[in-house]
């Protein structure tokens, strides 16, 4: 199979990393034995320098997959890529179609009736559907920090 290797400077939680992928290299690779699409080990036919490369795009099981990768040179200078699938980039087309109901802003909530910032939604490309009514109920004081209650459905 033919794969593309990149230097990726994006943070892990960004949905679409395409603008952060630089210096693409097209390389032939094989998968030996049984593998998991979540974490395959690829054996590369490449003898050059891979310093700074950490991302792979590959067509596996008929679907375009994206992986964070660590490259290791083995015996006989065989280069092995130890991969971990990036679900945000691999499934970004489907994720973008899902409606999300959330509220977020650039600052902390002013009071219990206001929406504050949400550190888990950092990608500005994901559109948000803000609910027309949002209820906040105080359940009591907790000494160990902030509590988050999320309901979906």
Task: Describe the structure in your own words.
The protein is mostly beta strands and 153 residues long. It folds into two domains: 2-94; 99-153, no CATH class. 7% of the residues lie in helices and 31% in strands. The protein has two helices and six strands. The protein has helices spanning 87-90, 92-97; strands at residues 2-8, 21-31, 41-45, 55-60, 63-73, 79-85. The protein has a six-stranded antiparallel β-barrel. The radius of gyration is 21 Å and the shape is elongated. The model has no long low-confidence stretch (mean pLDDT 77).
Radius of gyration: 21 Å
* Uncertain residue ranges: none
Distance separating the two termini: 41 Å
The biggest sheet, with number of strands, parallel, antiparallel or mixed sense and barrel status, is: 6 strands, antiparallel, barrel
Query: Shape from CA axes?
Result: elongated
Strand order of the largest sheet: 1-2-3-6-5-4
Strand fraction band? 25-35%
Report the helical percentage. under 10%
| Backbone structural class | mainly beta
Mean pLDDT: 77
Topology, number of strands = 6
Q: What is the domain tally?
A: 2
Number of helices: 2
Order of helices and strands: EEEEEEHH
């Amino acid at each position: 199979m033919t794969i593309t290797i990149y230097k990726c400077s994006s943070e892990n939680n960004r949905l679409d990393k395409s603008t952060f992928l630089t210096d693409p290299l097209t390389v032939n690779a094989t998968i030996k034995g049984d593998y998991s699409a979540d974490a395959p080990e690829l054996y590369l036919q490449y003898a050059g320098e891979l310093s700074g490369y950490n991302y792979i795009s590959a067509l596996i099981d008929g679907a375009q997959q994206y992986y964070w990768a660590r490259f290791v040179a083995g015996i006989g200078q065989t280069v092995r890529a130890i991969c971990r699938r990036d679900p945000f980039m691999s499934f970004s087309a489907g994720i973008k179609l899902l409606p999300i109901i959330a509220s977020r802003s650039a600052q902390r909530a002013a009071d219990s009736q206001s929406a504050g910032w949400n550190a888990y939604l950092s990608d500005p490309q994901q559109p948000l559907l803000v609910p027309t009514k949002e209820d906040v109920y105080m359940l009591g004081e907790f000494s160990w920090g902030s509590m988050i209650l999320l309901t979906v459905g």
